[in-house]
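User: For my dataset I need records formatted as: sequence, then structure tokens, nothing else. Please produce one.
Assistant:
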Amino acid sequence: MALDAESFDILLPTIQRFVRERLVPAENHLEEHDDVPADIIEDMKEMGLFGLTVPEEYGGIGLSVSQEVLVNYELGRTAAAFRSVFGTNIGIGSQGILMDGTPEQKGQYLPRVASGELIMSFALTEPDAGTDAASLKTRAEPDGDHYVLNGTKRYITNAPRAGAFTLMARTGGPGAGGVSSFIVPADSPGLTLGKNDKKMGQRGTKTCDVILQNVRVPAANIIGGVPGQGFKTAMKVLDRGRLNISAVSCGLASRIIDESRRYARERKQFGKAIGEFQLIQAMLADSQAELLAAWSLVQDVARRFDGKPAQISDPDISMRVSCAKLFATEMVGRVADRGVQIHGGAGYINEYPVERFYRDARLLRLYEGTTQVQQLIIGRELLRQD
């Protein structure tokens, strides 16, 4: 699945221009009001951003992974909340249906995802199950041709906007093999939302608890129609999601470097621009070198990802995805720290973008698998290989 090269060569500059002319000027409004303006969301729908990864047969654009990381690099150059509006929807929210769903499930949900009519969210994390996702406690008990779900999901991105959830629940015994993946409509009786989380950064993104009390879901809503496959679905979905977070990290690093270069040219101390001082140049150089290394890694892994069947897991590629997630998200943290340092005291004031980007970048090392989880995945796969 990929958009033809000619069409993509039109799409990418359009997104670059949208980021530069529409989203960047709206960053201060977003930071102040903690929400994405409704007119910007409508513009995103008209541009087809809600269908970037949905195949054309379901009304989407159908980007390959290599194309998607290029788009996410550009979207990473602005506030995270803008991409979050549709990024979860076309990523971990709906990718489980695209990868493992039945033909009926794809036909029912994917066209509505692509149009922006339906926002989907990914509900895996729980109060006692984050990194250890196989230990989740939300239960789904069979009741005729339905399942009854009980439990709580935590830190669920886009939950306040969601019309449906890709939700993991335990239908069998302990461990990964007892987990199934359900499509759960947000208006299901017994499903309620907690209050919006107040976060360190990434203002405008919406996360909260999803609480399930005797929520009845048709058995036909199990993704793929087969119980016990949910953990495998979640891991495949997270591989692609982690690669896109890596691309976003690279885009954010490039924006921070640009802001730091601009400040270094304009700010004067001791009678000259601070960019003329070698220690400032050294910080910029370290940031640029790390960015280029991370971005090269992300693009290489994306090409490898495109070279395998979408429905098949490849442990070597999963390991490489974890390498990209680990390196790129740690990289942007260092770049953000240097950006604040180059700005000096001004970097600690929210008048300058690097202050909020410093806070935004911190989450990238945590969600969709912490740095430490990526280290475990990499280490275990290296020891497994001959």
